[in-house]
Structures are given as C-alpha cells and as structure tokens.
Prior knowledge:
Elements: E1 5-9, H1 14-25, E2 29-34, H2 37-49, E3 53-58, H3 64-78, E4 83-86, H4 101-128, E5 133-138, H5 151-171, E6 176-183, H6 192-195, H7 198-204, H8 219-226, E7 237-240
Parallel strand pairs: 1-2, 1-4, 2-3, 4-5, 5-6, 6-7
Amino acid sequence: MHGRCALVTGASSGLGAHFARLLASRGAKVALAARRLDRLETLVQEIEAAGGTAVAVACDVTDEASVVNAVAQAAAGFGTLDVLVNNSGITGRKPFLEAGGEEWDSVLDTNLRGAFLMCREFARAAIAAGQGGRIVNVASILGLRTIKGVVPYTASKAGLCHMTAVLAMELGPRGITVNALAPGYVETDLNRAFLQGPAGARIAGRVPLGRLGQPEDLDGALLLLASDAGRFITGVVLPVDGGHVVSSI
C-alpha cells in the first residue's frame, strides 16, 4: 500500500478505526472520515506516532453536501485518492411489527444511500484525475443470509451487495474495481459485551471454525481488495466469517 492514498469512512471507532490503522501500517496515507472529529484527531495522532500519515475529515454520509466536501477535502489534502473503504454503518434490533419508518430511514440512509454517495464522489474524483481506484464496501454476511429482528439492516446490506455488483460493471471500464467485504460476527468495542455473553456463545456454536471473529481476521481480505494484489478481482462479495454463511444453522 506504499504510495497509495485511502479514505476510510466510519473511522472514529470499531472496524473503521482498525482498517485505518491497518492501511497506515502498510504505508498508505489515510484520510479518516466520520462525524466525531475529536475521535478522528486522536486516531490521527496515534497513526502519526507510529510513523504513518493521516488526516481527519468531518463527514456525515447521510448528508450529500457533507460527502461531496469530505471527498474533495481528502483528495485535495493528498493530491489523489486511490482507495475508498466504505465502512460507515449502523444497526438496530426490533421486531418487524414494532419497527417504524424512522428506523428504516435511518439505517438505509446510512448503510446504503451513504455508501452510494461515497462511491459516486470517489469515482468522480478518480475519473477526473485520470486514474483507476479500489472501492471496498463493508457489507455483512447478513446481506447473504438472514436473522430475525433486523429487517432494515439486512435489507441495507443485501442492497449494498447488489450495488457493488452493478458498480463493478459500470466502473470497470474506468479502471476502478468495486468489491464488498462481508464480515461475520466480529468482536469490537461496540459489541464485545454482547458477544462475550450467552448470545455470543450460541453464535460461535454455529460457526464451522468454532469461534467469533477478531478485527485482524479481516486484514488479509481488506488488503487484497484494496491493493494491486486484487487488481483482477471486481464485483465480488467476500465473506470473512469462519464459514458461518455456508452453515445450515
């Protein structure tokens, strides 16, 4: 990733922060995008202390003007953008009959519409610069299989998987690959208490490899799709889930 410039959304915590650290540790210059600018600045300091290069960019992916400004700011700061890691996302758990339209709108606006806007602005910037690029959309195995109680989330991630395929067809001739990384159940600061309880043990029992994921389990797949190692891979949804998606339970 040396010499590459990457933009990571949802970089203030969880997998987004992990992906930002990972790319920086492999030599990429990283623009960190999220709403919580204070957290981004702290992560910038951490990355720079480790010898990396990073900048913080305020971005609300549900606000089109904010997306346009964030991509422009990141591209101007580095002179170019080579990689987009579309990681921003939210969830929520509520039975279908109890869910309101506001839950649907909130999840779809962030997970699907926000990803669409980020992909569009990144692609426009890459094409204007006369270069190709790598888009990695962070989906979920719940875009490929289902559970109860998270209708908006599963719909948003299934939509993201299909959008990835369409964008791969449209942007391929422009030299831009578009793929999706579909994590299984991965422990982060945001879900650790839940996954380390009885529910997590039940989920781990359904995974063929017999355990939940850790953020570093996603590193190889993310680097493959973001680098020239994956230059002939596009339109793929790559599950990284210990085999959960192929399990019958």
